[in-house]
Each structure stands twice: as structure tokens, then as C-alpha cells.
Amino acid sequence: MARQIIQITPADGWQAVYAIQPHRNKNNPVWIAPLACWALVQQEKGRLVVGLDSTLSFCDQGDNFLGYLSPCERPDEWREKALQYLKQPDTHKRHV
Question: Residue 93: which residues within 8 A CB-CB, separation 6 or more?
Fold first, then answer.
């Protein structure tokens, strides 16, 4: 069963966080993208809330997705998690 969007709501100030090879991002392993909105979705295992990006794609299904950055967080708080993710062998990474 594919995800079905039940409801959307604004995600003011929230951003999706992704790991990226540092040499591709000014020596920073963290890449962030603003959320367009939050979506309540129905899927086979139940309902959950996920972020949608500016193309209205589910952020959590993107390559190298780490999580969400709240308006009060700083991107550098994700640096260590991004570096750990990038050190994993490709077989342990989540690629869509």
C-alpha cells in the first residue's frame, strides 16, 4: 500500500536534514532543505506524520535523510550524526 496523505499542515521554520559528502557542500556534511508542510499519512502499518519538501516529496524517503531540524535547533548539532552516517558501508545506508 502506497502512502496516502490524509491531512497537511504548515511546517513554518522546520527543515529536513540530510548527510552529504563534505567536499560537495563547502566541507560541511550537513545539508538542509526547508519543509513545505507536514503531512499526516496512512500507510500499511498505520498513520504517521512526515515532512514534505518543496517538490512535495516525502523527505524521509530521500537518500541520506537524517531527520528534521526544528526552528530552535542549529544545523551544526547534526554534524556528528551526518559524519557517522557517511562512514557506514553503502549496504547499511538507506537509499531509495
Answer: 64, 85
**Nearest Cα to Cα of residue 78 among 34, 6, 15, 11:** 15
Q: What is the pLDDT of residues 12-25, one digit of tens each?
A: 999 999 999 988 88
Residues 78-93: pLDDT tens digits? 999 999 999 987 655 5
The total domain count for the chain is 1
Its sign, for the CA torsion 65, 71, 73, 76, is positive
Distances (CA, A) of 37 to 5, 43, 51, 67, 81: 12, 18, 6, 15, 24
